[in-house]
TrEMBL record:
<protein>
    <recommendedName>
        <fullName>U6 snRNA-associated Sm-like protein LSm1</fullName>
    </recommendedName>
</protein>
<keyword id="KW-0963">Cytoplasm</keyword>
<feature type="domain" description="Sm">
    <location>
        <begin position="12"/>
        <end position="87"/>
    </location>
</feature>
<dbReference type="GO" id="GO:0003729">
    <property type="term" value="F:mRNA binding"/>
</dbReference>
<comment type="similarity">
    <text>Belongs to the snRNP Sm proteins family.</text>
</comment>
<comment type="function">
    <text>Component of the cytoplasmic LSM1-LSM7 complex which is involved in mRNA degradation.</text>
</comment>
<dbReference type="InterPro" id="IPR047575">
    <property type="entry name" value="Sm"/>
</dbReference>
<dbReference type="GO" id="GO:0000932">
    <property type="term" value="C:P-body"/>
</dbReference>
<keyword id="KW-0694">RNA-binding</keyword>
<dbReference type="InterPro" id="IPR001163">
    <property type="entry name" value="Sm_dom_euk/arc"/>
</dbReference>
<dbReference type="InterPro" id="IPR044642">
    <property type="entry name" value="PTHR15588"/>
</dbReference>
<keyword id="KW-0507">mRNA processing</keyword>
<dbReference type="GO" id="GO:1990904">
    <property type="term" value="C:ribonucleoprotein complex"/>
</dbReference>
<dbReference type="GO" id="GO:0006397">
    <property type="term" value="P:mRNA processing"/>
</dbReference>
<dbReference type="InterPro" id="IPR010920">
    <property type="entry name" value="LSM_dom_sf"/>
</dbReference>
<dbReference type="InterPro" id="IPR034104">
    <property type="entry name" value="Lsm1"/>
</dbReference>
<dbReference type="GO" id="GO:0000290">
    <property type="term" value="P:deadenylation-dependent decapping of nuclear-transcribed mRNA"/>
</dbReference>
Length: 141
C-alpha cells in the first residue's frame, strides 16, 4: 500500500487523535454536557480519558464550572471534540463566572425546557409528517 493511502486511512480512524494527546480539549457529549480537560489517552473506539476535567454550564450571560478531575468518556457519547487554543482562550468572551450551585437550577430548567420543546417538535413531525419517534436522548445529533 502506498504511504499516501496509509496516511489517509490513519487520518480517518481514531489514530487521528494522536496529535491531541496532552492538549486541552473541549468535548460536547450527546446529553449536551460540555467538558474541558486535558486529553491523556484514547483507544480504537474513541473512548477518551480527560484529566483536570471541568464541566461548564451556561445561562443568561453567566457560566459556572464544576471540577470532575479524571474523566472517562465512552466514544459513542462524543458529539464534538476540539482543541482549545490556550493563547486565545482568555480573549473569548465567556460572560461572568458564578458559583456552580447558584447557576445549576437555572441551567437544569433550560435543559428541561429544551427537552420539552424537542419532544413537542418530534410529536408534530410524527403526527403531521410521518417521521419516526424512535431514538433516545441526544440522538438528535
Amino acid at each position: 500500500m502506498s504511504s499516501g493511502l496509509e496516511e489517509l486511512i490513519a487520518f480517518t480512524t481514531s489514530g487521528s487523535l494522536v496529535d491531541c494527546v496532552d492538549r486541552k480539549m473541549l468535548v460536547v457529549l450527546r446529553d449536551g454536557r460540555k467538558l474541558h480537560g486535558v486529553l491523556r489517552s484514547y483507544d480504537q473506539f474513541a473512548n477518551l480519558v480527560l484529566e483536570d476535567t471541568v464541566e461548564r454550564i451556561y445561562h443568561a450571560g453567566a457560566y459556572a464550572e464544576n471540577w470532575h478531575g479524571l474523566f472517562l468518556i465512552r466514544g459513542e457519547n462524543v458529539v464534538l471534540l476540539g482543541e482549545i487554543d490556550l493563547d486565545l482562550e482568555d480573549e473569548v468572551p465567556q460572560g461572568r463566572q458564578v458559583d456552580y450551585p447558584a447557576l445549576e437550577p437555572y441551567h437544569k430548567k433550560d435543559v428541561e425546557t429544551k427537552k420539552q420543546r424537542e419532544e413537542h417538535k418530534a410529536q408534530i413531525l410524527y403526527e403531521q409528517r410521518g417521521f419516526c419517534k424512535e431514538g433516545g436522548e441526544g440522538d438528535g445529533y
